[in-house]
């Protein structure tokens, strides 16, 4: 006899005030993400361009969520103007374009997609290694000028050469596997000890990696300690005739020092996909940002310049759109902060759809003693089905599901929790 099990469907939750949630998506975020948000019933305004700080300050007050990539900067000033904002989605790897501390202090979690474009970036690096080694970027440009320049001088196979990877995270480790398949010897340097993949070997210092590598590729975040981590002294440690590749963050490399190293023929070439400052939209002038050394950079031989396209593949953008849109929808609909980069990670199992009188409390508060006692006093007339809280730095987050709440009690309940002395933001979902 077959035994069947009834699958209890999760209850779809809604904010107590029942205000239509409005989302602003900038920088040409995947249309699949737009459709996913619309399927949840959210109103979506979508733009292919970034916005300046002044533009955001004017517009952000109408929105409950915003999705950006790397060009739009969400500063403390923007966050102060975002009176309705509940969540920020970075549809990319990095989050340095957002003031994470100010966002957390305003009760706004920030989500990103740290792994979805790893393969795209790794494949770009492999293509750049081959292009630099064979100088075919130069040969292709010459052909467009009508010049036939068939030569082998200074052109190399990559088999048997050494690739040095600075930062052995998801991109660096994937790149390591691809590089070995091409016959490259792989070294890597990271601030922590990591298990290498394949035959890759971790070296003890950045200097040791630079001295041994024919190609050096950077995969580190933008932090105070990584700003200009490759400057004049580090470039001098690199092998004569080596190549530098930066698909990480623009401020990691001292550009004037790199220009000098290539002009002196100490380095044989470089590939840059990121820059210390980048235009806010397609078609914007590049020279206006790079100032005095931009023309020198563009005129260097065997230097590949690309407009921050490391993660710009259909596959990567689709996966990023899926991951970040799902994270934002889970927070807006259910309060889950799993995967947030600046916020305590808290989640509760779904409320069953057949439970009509349950209310989910989502309470962001300052991380000070006595908060749970105050909140639980407010909740004491009701049955607390489940509750979980956690903290990160100065911010704490409590989720609780309570039952036997009458419709008349819901607004009073929210007001009482909001009036506790540590309150940052309180949402009730029903």
TrEMBL record:
InterPro entries documented for this protein? ACT-like_dom_sf (IPR045865), D-2-hydroxyacid_DH (IPR050857), D-isomer_2_OHA_DH_cat_dom (IPR006139), D-isomer_DH_CS (IPR029753), D-isomer_DH_CS1 (IPR029752), D-isomer_DH_NAD-bd (IPR006140), NAD(P)-bd_dom_sf (IPR036291)
Q: Which domain of life is it from?
A: Eukaryota
Q: Where is the D-isomer specific 2-hydroxyacid dehydrogenase catalytic domain?
A: 24-342
Q: Name one GO molecular function term.
A: NAD binding
A UniProt-annotated Pfam family: 2-Hacid_dh_C
Question: Has the keyword Cell membrane been applied to this entry?
Answer: no
Per the record, the pathway is:
Amino-acid biosynthesis
* Family matches, as PROSITE patterns: D_2_HYDROXYACID_DH_1, D_2_HYDROXYACID_DH_2, D_2_HYDROXYACID_DH_3
Ribonucleoprotein as a keyword of this entry, yes or no, is: no
Return the protein name.
Answer: Phosphoglycerate dehydrogenase
Top-level taxonomy? Eukaryota, Fungi, Dikarya, Basidiomycota, Agaricomycotina
